[in-house]
Specification:
It is a single chain. The protein is mainly alpha-helical. It has one domain: UbiA prenyltransferase (Tetracycline Repressor, domain 2, Orthogonal Bundle). 71% of the residues lie in helices and 1% in strands. It has a two-stranded parallel ribbon. The longest helix is centred in the C-terminal third of the chain and has 27 residues. The protein is globular. The two termini are 36 Å apart.
Length: 275
Amino acid sequence: MIRFHEYGPQVIITCLATALIASKELDIRLVKLIIYATSGSISAFILNDIVDVDEDRVLGKFRNPLASGELGVGTAAILYLLTATVSITSLVGFNIYVITLALTTLSLSYLYSVGIRFKELVPMDLVVHGLVPTLLVLTTYVTYRPLSLDLLILALIVFTSSLTVELLQEVRDLSVSSRTTVKYLGVKVSKDLILTLVVITSALYILLTLSRYDLNYLIIYSPLTYLIVEPVIKFRGGYLSVEEVISKLRFRTTLLVTLALITYVALNASQYTIR
């Protein structure tokens, strides 16, 4: 009903992976950060669907549960207020830097759909879509550890990955979207950009594994980044539809990140403490 299921696992994995890389001493703050991230993401999805319900109904974009009639606007408004409140109140107890980053992230996710409506401003539709999960990485990391090189690389990986996702979605929705970067660039250039971003993301993964001694062994998974590049190459050549490449990338990326994360935790399990 709520489209969070499409991106929810990625939000949780991003938050969890960042915390596990940042520190070996975990506490209740990680649970609160995950609650903040998941509730905030759900509220942003709901707000977007409320704002766009009339337009989506006319355009036949029934991925919006309000446009398809699966959910009423009044119910959606209540759900938005509840999830937004849960997200914000979960930040109680954090220091001012973390709270500022977290509220900035939440504000950008809302302004993507309402007010400024970054989703209709080229190229801010891409930039803001990339910044929201990137700021989540920063928020989670600085909760446990000061700024560092591995944080910068991890943030860049999330940023380029998010840009890729947004470009693919804009290609998919090209016929029903009013103003997007893909319409400005054209499909051919957008496909080239998607491939470039995927290659950059793969290179950044290798760089991340070399940035810290306890990440070095994760370089063994670098050949598997071809599983991410391969469907994009086929998509660029016209051998895969946009829906097919989105589905493959979502599954393979989640699988590879989970595999690397499990390996990292397993090899460092004795060093972790939970308070």
